[in-house]
Amino acid sequence: MSRWEPNARGRLAEAALELCGERGYEQTTVAEIAKRAGLTERTFFRHYADKREVLFGGSGALQELFVNAVTGAPESAAPIDSIAAGLQAVSAMFVGRREYSRQRQALIVANAELRERELIKLASLSAALADALRRRGVAEPAASLTAEAGVAVFKVGFERWIAPAEEREMSQVMRESLDELKAVAAGG
Amino acid sequence: MSRWEPNARGRLAEAALELCGERGYEQTTVAEIAKRAGLTERTFFRHYADKREVLFGGSGALQELFVNAVTGAPESAAPIDSIAAGLQAVSAMFVGRREYSRQRQALIVANAELRERELIKLASLSAALADALRRRGVAEPAASLTAEAGVAVFKVGFERWIAPAEEREMSQVMRESLDELKAVAAGG
DNA sequence: CTACGTGATGACAGTGACTGACATCAGGTG
DNA sequence: CACCTGATGTCAGTCACTGTCATCACGTAG
What is the rounded distance in angstroms from the CA atom of residue B10 to the CA atom of residue B13? Predict the structure, then answer.
């Protein structure tokens, strides 16, 4: 066996979600999170740049997956259709994680600091998508606008997917949300 | 004369812009800002909820002005045209403040914390505009989409207006940016 | 004129996020 | 066996932010 328990980063994220879920984000200290994960406060900050970041650990993987799917879409695919491919790829990553996502989102909407962090993550995602579209030969401002539209659909679709009564898979909800955006854009 | 120098809030904002401009946002402490304004750190936090907020003091007035202009637009005006009226009203507020705006924006884009705060201010503006449109009888999702479009035009227009070579008035730049959005949306 | 309330401020101690510097120590490598 | 490496612990320190109480010019009631 190794010197330390494995997956310190994951243990910190799990401990943070548990503790913040029990008593709220602001009422949870970094020292407490670290202690539950069997680590010290100083080690927490070696894994996460700040306290908020521990609740956004998956955003990097999400962005990478989304961008890769857009990049890997057929050359013939229109910009909005490569975004659609990205939405489908991202949906696969959330299979079986609806309850987890609900808990996490409840935390975020309840706290202004966390909402700020979420907004900048989505802005980063939008910029990365626009970049991917540009590499596919999409010109500006179409690339940025399509990227923004993709993020808007993701936001709307995600909120619907975690709604209390909702039981459909995320991929289906995303497809439907994208269709609605297309209808609105067409003046429907 | 009164017991204290007047306009403590404004003095704090001015001191903050000066000091952060000289040495950067992170290298400036709240105690230093307060001292330059002739106040104490404790008093700073009686005027601003946190350190970032001192650089966003005008955002409340901007949102109010924008929303009022939208609300006060002729009943016959289409949603996008009431937004256009808001953009014109906001432009009036920036007359003679281009250099100030350049300095402030340079600070914000240079710092991730400040960018986060700016994003949530814009999100708040978008929500307020959507609300104003709904009160004008605009249905969803048209209200939210039009509001988002309005904020997008404001962002693009503002960035153009503070660009180094730019000398036109903000009202003209905003008009032009809105026209471009309309062209893009029309598939042009 | 005096007493009292009010509101903006100062003073001070305390918490918690975050950082820098140095120590530790299992495991791999030559 | 000596040495290096990487993840961790320890500790002191800075700074954002808060709660609490004191101060004191000003206005106002009596």
Answer: 5
Q: Which nucleotides of C are covered by protein (CB under 7 A)?
A: 7-13, 16-21, 25-27
Q: Is the CB of A2 under 7 A from strand C?
A: yes
Q: CB–CB of A145 and B115 under 8 A? A: no
Average pLDDT over residues A66-84: 97
- Strand C lies under 7 A from the Cβ of residue B59: no
d(CA B152, CA B158): 10
pLDDT value, residue B1: 55
B119 → closest Cβ in A120, A141, A142: A120
Asked if A145's CB is within 8 angstroms of B184's CB, the reply is: yes
Choose among A115, A141, A142: nearest Cβ to B120. Answer: A115
Name, in order, each residue with C-beta under 8 angstroms of A143's C-beta and a sequence gap of 6 or more: A79, A130, A131, A133, A134
Chain segment B86-95, per-residue pLDDT in tens: 999 999 999 9
d(CA A90, CA A63): 9
pLDDT tens readout for residues A174-187: 999 999 998 888 87
| Per-residue pLDDT of chain B in tens (188 residues, 90 and over written 9) | 578 888 999 999 999 999 999 999 999 999 999 999 999 999 999 999 999 999 999 999 999 999 999 999 999 999 999 999 999 999 999 999 999 999 999 999 999 999 999 999 999 999 999 999 999 999 998 999 999 999 999 999 999 999 999 999 999 999 999 999 988 888 75
Q: How many helices (H) and strands (E) does chain B have?
A: 9, 0
Cβ–Cβ gap B116/A112 under 8 Å: no
Query: In chain A, whose CA is at the least distance from the CA of B185?
Result: A185
**Residue A127 forms contact with B (CB below 8 Å):** no
Tokens 């894994």 correspond to A47
Structural domains in chain A, CATH included, are 8-54 (1.10.10.60), 58-185 (1.10.357.10)
- Beta-carbon contacts of A41 under 8 Å, excluding residues fewer than 6 positions away, are A30, A31, A34
Contact between B180 and A141 using a beta-carbon 8 Å cutoff? yes
